[in-house]
């Protein structure tokens, strides 16, 4: 895709940082405000007529504006949208940190406290967007980033469903957006989705954080839809005996085949995960620089001052550097 080195006379492309069915995400530099941003170029469906392209562009603009109205600490802010050489683009906050997939691979299994710390932050994001009639539809480990300070960001609302009556959708009937690993049964069947679809995906994430493995896996991805529709998830305590029974019950309920059997809303999930959050820490420790990502930090030191990672702290203490 030839979009050029500079988009809209402002965003200088550095390099690709991700791609998927909806488009490509680039690291770019906003030369007007001198900051790095994430710039997502959207794929154009081949074979469309001019009228169809126009309607598609209008839908993209309408839904991008709706996504820009989402306001939560755990959501990457939308800065801009436009079109360059026939390619639509969306400019968002560039979030640095480690994604949940890599964090699990690094740790193999997360502790109960870390799982709860990540889980309640995701539930908080979902509660906020669901209250605005938005469903993510593609919640997965790669779309969850843990910043160095422990704050969790849920990324890529690019395939989100907007449930307001009369709102046109970017996807067409029969299209199945999302990733199979965390796809709910109703998505596999191309049925309508609602907030409980995201809760199923959250159940998949909690299961993987605690066990290191997806709920369902097979050497052939073609077999996954059948497993999602027909197989019963293995109870967590069969895979990790130290799992509390209440937590096991929550995950099994989140993974219910029938959306009506899942928790009523994200707030309920937040409430049921909260007992495993870490206790408040010593205020003095809030000023201690940290060496690595710590999802427990926002709960041990809520609204604490921004202590810096060890490397930045050490650099600031060098002779001649301001402290």
Automatic annotation (TrEMBL):
<dbReference type="Pfam" id="PF00069">
    <property type="entry name" value="Pkinase"/>
</dbReference>
<protein>
    <recommendedName>
        <fullName>non-specific serine/threonine protein kinase</fullName>
        <ecNumber>2.7.11.1</ecNumber>
    </recommendedName>
</protein>
<dbReference type="InterPro" id="IPR008271">
    <property type="entry name" value="Ser/Thr_kinase_AS"/>
</dbReference>
<feature type="region of interest" description="Disordered">
    <location>
        <begin position="300"/>
        <end position="323"/>
    </location>
</feature>
<keyword id="KW-0547">Nucleotide-binding</keyword>
<keyword id="KW-0418">Kinase</keyword>
<feature type="domain" description="Protein kinase">
    <location>
        <begin position="11"/>
        <end position="277"/>
    </location>
</feature>
<feature type="binding site">
    <location>
        <position position="40"/>
    </location>
    <ligand>
        <name>ATP</name>
    </ligand>
</feature>
<keyword id="KW-0067">ATP-binding</keyword>
<dbReference type="InterPro" id="IPR000719">
    <property type="entry name" value="Prot_kinase_dom"/>
</dbReference>
<keyword id="KW-0723">Serine/threonine-protein kinase</keyword>
<dbReference type="GO" id="GO:0004674">
    <property type="term" value="F:protein serine/threonine kinase activity"/>
</dbReference>
<dbReference type="InterPro" id="IPR017441">
    <property type="entry name" value="Protein_kinase_ATP_BS"/>
</dbReference>
<dbReference type="InterPro" id="IPR011009">
    <property type="entry name" value="Kinase-like_dom_sf"/>
</dbReference>
<keyword id="KW-0808">Transferase</keyword>
